[in-house]
């Protein structure tokens, strides 16, 4: 039977890992096709618009880019056994952890791929080379990969990964591994026996880079075997199975992770929103560029500079609008949770300029809530 969907991506791609695990869980009739140089040229660029993976193509010729849009598109088409909890706190936590994973844990993921390159050079370059040119010999693939990965290697300082921040990036990551290890020693997934959108977010950085590249893989297997086992469960799920915990329970083991997210990521996101607003006020009706320069950030005990990634606002709007939709008892419970993890002020910050994504472009535009 011909596949209903094709996912164009790669084994070593962070965001492909997120979409792949989701599609496996949903038990869809799909196939994965490597995004070779040829696929970028003949399919991704002409049909999706920008040179980014993964890209989903449907049998009737529709394409979707961006894992969050891919998942939401597929959720709408296959609503059974949703990955979005329908209870207020679990939905909030799942969306917060998706945001954290997608936009912040890319920092340790990229650090452990590129800062220790001397210890895993052949593996990394041959992965990039194999993706671009599957027909080339293994030796050629290493050389091709060295060339094609240049842009990703070059983005490391932009992400805030420098000699000054590396010790703190590692410290915060090791703490996260310990916290997740303790969580997954008790629970199959973040919120029970069914993976949520938060799990699919986390599998992005925690698979292709942190559980697959040789150096961080060994670290995870040694230090956090329960996290490694969760990675395997995410990649080999029993489709459409499991339940979220009853009574909208949030496991206490997730609170320290949310605390770190609120401490490190939310100030960065609020500053992105501020920069997006300034830009829109100066360029009404314009397309907000993907990057708006650099701004200060903190992670753990270190401070540095990283790129102002306008897109982070779009991801933050998801948990923010869910929180804002709550009222009465539900809002009070969400407030208690957010207060305990240090996120209450951020979630009560007014977003004056709402942003939207337009298919086929990286820039954002002003939209209406
Ligand atoms: N927010 C996007 C991010 C996708 C993304 O950054 N993909 C990487 C590969 S894992 C890529 O193609 N990057 C090229 C670029 O950023 O220009 C998503 O969720 O799909």
What layout of secondary structure does this protein have?
Blueprint: E1 5-9, H1 14-25, E2 30-34, H2 37-48, E3 55-58, E4 63-65, H3 67-77, H4 88-103, H5 106-114, H6 121-132, H7 138-148, H8 150-154, H9 166-184, H10 197-209, H11 214-223, H12 225-235, H13 255-282, E5 291-299, E6 302-309, H14 311-324, H15 328-341, H16 344-347, E7 355-357, E8 364-366
Parallel strand pairs: 1-2
Antiparallel strand pairs: 1-3, 3-4, 5-6, 7-8
Helix pairs in contact: 1-10, 4-10, 4-14, 5-10, 6-7, 9-12, 11-12
Glutathione binds at residues 13-15, 52-53, 66-68, 102.
Descriptors:
369 residues, alpha+beta, Glutaredoxin, Glutathione S-transferase Yfyf (Class Pi), Chain A, domain 2, 4-stranded mixed sheet, two-stranded antiparallel sheet, 16 helices, 11% strand, binds glutathione
Characterization of the model:
With 369 residues, the protein is an alpha+beta fold. The chain folds into 3 domains: 5-77, Glutaredoxin (3-Layer(aba) Sandwich); 92-247, Up-down Bundle (Glutathione S-transferase Yfyf (Class Pi), Chain A, domain 2), CATH 1.20.1050.10; 252-366, no CATH class. It is 54% helix and 11% strand. It is built from 16 helices and 8 strands. The strands form 3 sheets. It has a 4-stranded mixed β-sheet, sandwiched between helices. Strands 5-6 form a two-stranded antiparallel sheet. Helix 11 packs across helix 12. The structure holds glutathione. Residues 13-15, 52-53, 66-68, 102 line the site of glutathione.
What can be said about this structure in brief?
The protein is α+β, with helices and mostly antiparallel strands and 369 residues long. It is built from 16 helices and 8 strands. The site of glutathione has 9 residues, from helix 1 and helix 3.
């Amino acid at each position: 039977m011909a596949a209903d969907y094709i996912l164009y991506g790669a084994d070593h791609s962070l965001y492909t890992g997120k979409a792949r695990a989701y599609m496996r869980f949903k038990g869809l009739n799909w196939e994965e096709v490597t995004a070779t140089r040829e696929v970028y040229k003949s399919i991704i660029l002409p049909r999706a618009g920008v040179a980014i993976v993964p890209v989903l193509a449907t049998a009737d010729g529709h394409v979707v880019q961006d894992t969050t849009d891919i998942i939401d598109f597929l959720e709408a088409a296959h609503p059974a056994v949703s990955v979005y909890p329908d209870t207020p706190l679990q939905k909030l936590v799942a969306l917060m952890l998706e945001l954290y994973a997608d936009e912040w844990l890319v920092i340790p993921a990229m650090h452990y791929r590129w800062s220790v390159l001397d210890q895993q050079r052949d593996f990394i370059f041959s992965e990039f080379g194999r993706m671009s040119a599957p027909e080339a010999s293994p030796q050629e693939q290493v050389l091709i990969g060295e060339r094609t990965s240049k842009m990703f290697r070059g983005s490391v300082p932009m992400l805030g990964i420098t000699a000054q921040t590396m010790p703190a990036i590692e410290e915060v990551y090791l703490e996260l591994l310990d916290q997740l290890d303790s969580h997954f020693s008790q629970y199959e997934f973040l919120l029970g026996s069914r993976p949520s959108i938060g799990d699919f977010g986390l599998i992005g950085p925690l698979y292709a880079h942190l559980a697959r590249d040789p150096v961080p893989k060994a670290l995870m297997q040694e230090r956090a075997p329960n996290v490694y086992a969760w990675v395997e469960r995410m990649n080999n799920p029993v489709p459409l199975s499991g339940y979220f915990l009853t009574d909208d329970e949030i496991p206490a083991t997730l609170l320290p992770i949310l605390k770190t997210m609120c401490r490190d990521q939310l100030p960065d996101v609020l500053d992105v929103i501020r920069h997006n607003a300034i830009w829109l006020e100066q360029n009404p009706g314009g397309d907000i560029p993907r990057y708006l320069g650099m701004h200060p950030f903190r992670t753990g005990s270190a401070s540095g500079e990283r790129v102002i990634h306008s897109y982070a606002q779009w991801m933050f709007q998801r948990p923010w609008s869910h929180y804002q939709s709550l009222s009465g008892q539900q809002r009070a419970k969400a407030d208690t949770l957010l207060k305990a993890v240090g996120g209450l002020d951020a979630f009560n910050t007014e977003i004056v300029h709402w942003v939207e994504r337009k298919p086929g472009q990286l820039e954002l535009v002003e939209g209406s809530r």
